What does this fold into?
Amino acid sequence: MRHAKKRLVVASVLVTGLVAALTGCASGPTGGSDGNNGELTIWTHNGGNTAELAAVQAVVDGYNGSQDETTVKLQAFPQASYNDSVVAAAAASKLPCIVDIDGPNVPNWAWAKYLTPLDLSVDLSENLPSTLGIWNGETYSVGHYDVALAMFARKSVLADAGIRVATIDQPWTQEEFSDALKTLKATGNWKNPLDIGTGDVGEWYPYAFSPLLQSFGGDLIDRGEYQSADGVLNGPEALAWAEWMQSLATNDYIATKSGADPALDFQNNVTAIQYGGSWAATNNTEAIGDDLAVMPSIDLGEGSKVGGGSWQWGVTTGCANPEAAMDYLSYSLSPENIAAISVATATIPATDAAAALVPGFEEGGNLAIFREFSAKSAVLRPETPAYPFIATEFTKATQDIINGGDPQQTLEAAVKAIDANIKSNGGYTQK
Amino acid sequence: MTPTIVRPPATAVSVPTRTRNVKRDRTSKSEERAGLAMLAPAVILLALFIFVPAILAFGLAFTNARLISPYPATFVGFNNFARLLTDPTFFRALLNVGYFALVVVPMQAGLALVMAILINKQVKGTTFFRTVYFLPVVTSMVVVSLLWLFMYRQDGLINVILDRVTFGLVTGPDWLNDTSTSMPAIILMSVWQGVGFHMIIWLSGLQTIPADLYEAADLDGVSRWQRFRYITWPGLSATRSLILVTITIQALSLFTQISVMTQGGPLNSTTTVVYEAVESGFAQQETGYASAISLVFFIIVLLISVAQRFLSREKI
It folds into this structure.
């Protein structure tokens, strides 16, 4: 009995107790100690990605070798617990000088006063706009790379089914796309001809599916004032998007829970078309070779859209020597460094100068198409501190819609929750 | 041979003399000190990691505290609770947890009792079976959930077996991805994982029943059912209330399986109160609201276990 009571208390309360301990950061972290004595720490999320970590480490080593004033130390975390670690560090006023941040979270952390505006010696106007984290008119973060979305298919499969290969100037229309899926499904070769990665719950949902919503003309939030989602996430355009998403599932064009590795399923011809990230391109090319068609996302009315904004770097308010941190970031943004990291991560280099150095991304290269997608049709996820909340609501709503929930009701519930959250935070304005 | 139960004679209360009393005071004081010193580490740890956070959480439930915010939390009265009452997901979570507990408690307790009786025999090989039944308990719930996640897939082990055994007549559903099968699937694997633990508790209860009672019953020529009904069952009354309360509390705080296997879906069919609290507290950063959920949950569990204690108390 006593043991049981203990368990009960542990289960129900310890969780929030931990949260309670973490909320001491109410007034924002100030006066950190990292950056003193010529030492400076960087935290990164890519502990599980050896290639990316090695590339970043090489940049750090290069910087340490290039001058004597500052020694930079790199600390890697597993991605799943990275955000929690930063939040805990902020609560304890122990933020490192430099952190990396997933692009859409930048406004949230800037609002919480974790980050300080950047003041770099390099010209950031050279960067793809989606590699900069801007909020309230200040630039808080900069990335070495961006990612894009694309449709992958086998040219031979499309030709057999009489489907044209989509191009940047002429992406598939909604009608064309549904005809294509119908034809592919009718062949009986694929249980679900299309894979949009429904099994990948997490940031994938808002990253991949909100551009589809935007292509219909809807959005996650009204971007005028960033105060309400009413009318945009539950309007007629959003409803059309929801019904279309649901029809993909009810027609069995997609699996409501796709496999663990959509790219692998596509390479093994378990699915005919993969709607996936640009990072899958290198692998898909290796597996399929010249038969691979890399096409832009569908035009659902308002043109083809792709998500923008990947992991970026920012300087924290806990840094005792921001100048040194800015100096390191400026160094790390040289074309050679950007190119090295982008090669390691199979992502789109942030600047033209770097792109020229990355095989495939040079003018006319087979991956250059992604830079065009990014430059031409990237839509950033809403730049508001409310984003982490919006993302969870959007993910849940999309899952429910795919699983057969009533589209209008589901969207209304999401709008209600988002609006309530923004209101309870005083509109997320900086007082 | 009739069993004789030897009861200790009622002890007479001895009236201590005055001189003995002084001496005992001294020893009892130093004993008291030693006792407190030994108690201290446990009490301090409990207070630090359980009571203080619990009280903090209760306080936070009345504020708009957030995981990440540049502003201090402010008192908002019963706002969080008002929001909770209008949140259909919360009621769905309560319903799911109630459903889970109502099925799991009798099923797990009953199955554990049957298994305990079966292996409470002095025959060869019982140790082997005890170990086998206990294996899932010592395996981490996360690992068990991951394994069952694979087994429950559309083309997973369970559906393949169904297909083979029925010669292709039955095609199993996509267990975890179907609103009508997701919760039963989770119930099944939860019972499978937890049943061994309660089997061991039943077993310890069974072994406290004196063997001579059974011998006497044999002499009287009772049936197997009577043996169970009039000797085993009454002999297990203390064990029974322990098992009832532990399984109920475990069932109500269902979380790990959900977090690993379904994330509350599809269409909220497997969401639970603790899962909602963790989601609001961490993913949605709403510490105040998550604390309110925890507080309500705490009260519900407290009421249920008090009621159970009351109903299963030893009647004199």
Observations:
- Residues 79-311 of chain B form a domain with the MetI-like fold fold (CATH 1.10.3720.10).
- Residues 18-60 of chain B form the longest helix (43 residues).
- The radius of gyration of chain B is 26 Å.
- Chain B touches chain A through 56 residues (CB under 8 Å).
